[in-house]
Amino acid sequence: MNEKSCSFHNEKELRDGQVESVSAGCLPPCDEDNSALLAFRGIPISELKNHGILQALTAEANGWEPAVMNTEVLRAQEEWEAVDSIQPETAGSRASSDQPGQLISFSEALQHFQTVDLSSFKKRIQPTIRRTGLAALRHCLFGPPKLHQGLREERDLVLTIAQCGLDSQDPMHGRVLQTIYKKLTGSKFDCALHGDHWEDLGFQGTNPATDLRGAGFLALLHLLYLVMDSKTLLMAQEIFRLSRHHIQQFPFCLMSVNITRITIQALREECLSRECNRQQKVIPVVNSFYAAAFLRLAHVWRTQHKTISDSGFVLRDLEVLAKKSPRRLLKTLEIYLAGVSKGQASLLGAQKCAGPQAPPSKDLTFTGVCDLPPHSSEGTWLI
User: For the whole model, what pTM was predicted?
Assistant: First the structure.
């Protein structure tokens, strides 16, 4: 026996020497087994294991076989044998359980669409506006240049995503919604994919999927870009605060969907081709154009004291300006972001917009781009 064992037996003061005899492989007589088991109760399982006592008690030794197997001994043996099979919880296993709640970046969401089969949606797209007669001739002579051949696949991907709907059963789609909600509200917790809390963000109902008409999942990707890009997050939060102003309130997400529709039209009418050709990219230009148009709308809304009743007219004028002067919009965004990076005051005048926030109202009548009758650009007033 080692010193630890001897010390242990001394502390227990086992005067009858039963433990010593058992640890040496000699079990007590049958009529003394009950008293021996009473002595074993105070011995740790590890000590019993070290001296082979458990094996001696549960197997025939020196011609002795216990008449009745003690349940406490069996339980002790089972507990000891189970020690080797217990695996501690690792940090990785905890992280994997938290995976659905993690934020998703724009690039990760975009990569998802780049890897899945979108052939059925791609068949629906119309990459460019079909013109005939004088309109086709005028566009050929005075219109913007055509998009470079090498960029057309990227353009088609953007238009294809706009054909995809929101699938609540797709984990990636759910993560996009959760990320938008957390970034705008500051919440640390996940929320239900259906519920009244989506009305707080500016959707018309409890299911965001019903408001994506004409823009598809591209509308959510644009919102994701706005809140996940460090350069535009502050702008997104400012516009969101403006949308909850007690007088100038408007449905934030629904307005964003309409701006995505304007962006899609500008892309199809080749209004963005010159800038895409210059940068040799499509998706970054489309994202910046969307952000610039949203910034322009917010600036007009704030400085000209627009209300929800003006929504349709403001969007129509924004569409005309966006298609006519896309470079002007993009330049305004560059100036704004440069000012924000230097800590200068916001173009939205957010410090003047302080006031009680209006609760989301179901009585708001919002007029979007698709709800207004089409008309020519002549006679529209630019802001």
Answer: 0.67
